[in-house]
Design a protein that fits this description.
The protein has helices at residues 15-28, 50-61, 127-134, 147-152, 166-183, 195-206, 217-224, 257-260, 266-280, and strands spanning 2-9, 32-38, 41-48, 76-79, 88-92, 124-125, 140-143, 153-155, 187-190, 211-214, 233-235, 237-238, 245-246. The protein is of the alpha/beta class. 39% of the residues are buried.
Length: 282
C-alpha cells in the first residue's frame, strides 16, 4: 500500500464543488484518506493500493480535479503495511491549516484570499541546502510542530517552541524575534510536510526575520536525502494516521499512541483518545 500527502495554496471560488469532485474521485478509486478544502486551497493525504494512489495523483496532476488548479502538484510518498485510514473523508473548512496567527489586514475581496503563500520561492531549501544551513552556527533551527511531535523526533540542534496550542507558537516567536533580529540570526524552519511553514513564514517575515523553510518538510527530506545526509534527523516522525510514527527511511516503527502522548497534558490526553478511536475504527 502507498500513502501520499499533498497540499496546494490556490484561490478556490467554489470549495464545496471542489470537495465533491474530490469525494467522487477518491471513492471511485477505493481510497482511504482525509482532505481539507477551503477558499485558500487544498490539503490532504490518501492511501490505498499503489496503483490506485498513483491513478489519483495522475488525475490531480492532469487537472481533472479542481478545474486544473492542482497541475504540477508534488506528493510526499511513504509505504504502508496496514491501512492508515478507515474511510475517505473530504471536509470544507475556513482554512486548510489553522495556526491561530494574528489577523491579517482586511482583504479587498472577502470571498477569495489575495495573499496566498508562495510554495516555490527561494526561501524553500532542498534537503542538501537544508543540511548546509544546519551546519552554520548562526541559524535558529525552529521546529514548527506540536511538542509531542518534537519529543518523538527532530533535527539535530532544533529549538522546541513547546506548542500545546496554536497560540503557543505565535507567543514563542514574538518573544524571541527581537533577539534573533538583533543578533542577525536567520530562522531555518521545518514541519512535517511543509504546509505549516508556508502558512507562518509570511507572518514571521513581517516581524523582520529572515526565514528559510525545508522544502516539502520532514517527509520530503527523508524521501530524498541520501542516507548519510539524513543523519541530521534524529528519532521518529509522527504522522496523523493509524501508523503513528515513521523512521528515517519512512517505514512504520511500531510506536504506539501510548508511547507518544502524555495524558498529563489535556491536549495530549484528547489526542490519545482520538488515536485509540482511529485504531478501533473499521
Amino acid at each position: 500500500m502507498l500513502h501520499s500527502a499533498f497540499y496546494r495554496f490556490v484561490a478556490l471560488a467554489e470549495p464545496e464543488a471542489a470537495a465533491e469532485e474530490l469525494r467522487e474521485l477518491g471513492r471511485a478509486l477505493g481510497l482511504g484518506g482525509s482532505i481539507i478544502v477551503a477558499t485558500e486551497g487544498v490539503n490532504g493525504t490518501v492511501a490505498g493500493p499503489a496503483d490506485q494512489v498513483e491513478a489519483f495523483e495522475r488525475r490531480l496532476r492532469a487537472g481533472a480535479a479542481l478545474q486544473g488548479a492542482l497541475r504540477g502538484l508534488r506528493f510526499k510518498r511513504s509505504v504502508c503495511t496496514q491501512p492508515p485510514f478507515g474511510r475517505f473523508k473530504v471536509s470544507v473548512k475556513p482554512e486548510i491549516v489553522a495556526l491561530g496567527l494574528p489577523a491579517s489586514p482586511p482583504r479587498s475581496n472577502a470571498d477569495l484570499p489575495d495573499d496566498l503563500p508562495d510554495e516555490g520561492d527561494v526561501s524553500h531549501l532542498s534537503p542538501a541546502a537544508w543540511n548546509e544551513l544546519l551546519a552554520r552556527d548562526d541559524a535558529v533551527v525552529l521546529d514548527n510542530r506540536n511538542h509531542f511531535e518534537f519529543r518523538l523526533g527532530h533535527f539535530r540542534g532544533a529549538v522546541d517552541p513547546g506548542v500545546h496550542h496554536f497560540r503557543d507558537f505565535v507567543r514563542f516567536v514574538e518573544q524571541h524575534a527581537p533577539a534573533w533580529r538583533a543578533q542577525g540570526r536567520p530562522v531555518a524552519m521545518y514541519c512535517t510536510g511543509g504546509i505549516r511553514c508556508d502558512k507562518t513564514a509570511p507572518w514571521m517575515r513581517s516581524l523582520g526575520l529572515e526565514v528559510f523553510q525545508l522544502e516539502g518538510g520532514i517527509l520530503n527530506y527523508l524521501q530524498h536525502a541520501p542516507a548519510a545526509d539524513g543523519a541530521a534527523w534524529q528519532g521518529e516522525c509522527f504522522v496523523f494516521d493509524r501508523r503513528i510514527a515513521l523512521d528515517a527511511h519512512l517505514r512504520e516503527t511500531g510506536t504506539t499512541a501510548e508511547q507518544v502522548f502524555d495524558p498529563a497534558h489535556p491536549d495530549e490526553a484528547w489526542r490519545l483518545q482520538r488515536a485509540r478511536r482511529l485504531d478501533e475504527a473499521d
